[in-house]
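>> received
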Amino acid sequence: MFSLGNEVKLTVFGSSHGPYIGGTMDGLPAGINIDEEFIQKWLDRRKPGQTIITTQRKEDDLMEIIGGSHNGYTDGSPFTFIFKNKDYIDKHYDDLKANPRPGHADLTMYYKYGEYRNYEGGGFFSGRMTMPLVAAGALAMDIIKKYNIKIVTYIKSAGGITLEESPPDNEDYAYDFKTRMPNKEKDELLYTRILDVIKEGDSLGSVISTKICNVPEGIGEPFFNSIESEISKAMFSIPGLKAIEFGSGFKLGNMKGSQANDEFYIENNKIVTKTNNSGGILGGITNGMPVEFNIAMKPASSIRLPQKTVNIEKMEASEVVVKGRHDPFISYRAVPVIQAMTAFVILDMIMSKRSL
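>> returned
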């Protein structure tokens, strides 16, 4: 239920307002260097309280390794790490116990777990559970550097503002921008738009784009373990993510075959394609071109505007106004989560084909 992966399996545990959140990576061979500074850099990019456009919850998000390492290297046993939760306020959720937030998992949590559910802070449905995803993904990102694989993730569109051009193939580039939309003019426009939404007490969704450069060809399996299947499964483990498309995605539905097909040619003694409508994947297997996909991140459901709901204890109409600290633009912190989870999948798929 809380695990992901084939050759490398990631399991997560904990909850938003519990004492700890953590994760375990099982299947890593011994002798892999654990660059804690590199991992922490990515955790800090996901951390709350960085800017006015994120939740103002203050957490250190410092990783503590409790198993699977020896003298800075993996030892072959499950690599296990935890994070301590410090800045949580349970009373903000008192009203939500009986009045589920529209758009949130509060109601389905009640359907599945009933009176025993862990509802404070969203429990284990909280976006805070993406922290171990980033830690595991950052370690994976460091490992796949040996293949010169680069993963570029950024905000492509939000609030009616769209970035048409692609940024440089630089994994860190988007983090130099206030909204992680890597264009100076549109970054400013989007930042202003987000501030307006905050004043309104509302939230904003986005489309987030990812490009994986230098992926070895032949990675992935036909049918059930295709590269699209594995990436999609990982992406839908991220709270708030509601749609995904590869390459030209839904645009393909209005193309002719002569437009959609990516014609082959030879460049530097390698087979490449003139276009990349397939997103670097054919038959579920990488073809050597960049793997490209877009995801849709819905607006955060915790907003300050009054919303109609039902009281599940009295079974009558009610209204909810969410208290506490929440992300008006959760996509800002979703960017490193998507980037890290992509790295985890690529590492897992590479290990399915070859040894490290």
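>> The two ends are 27 Å apart (CA to CA).
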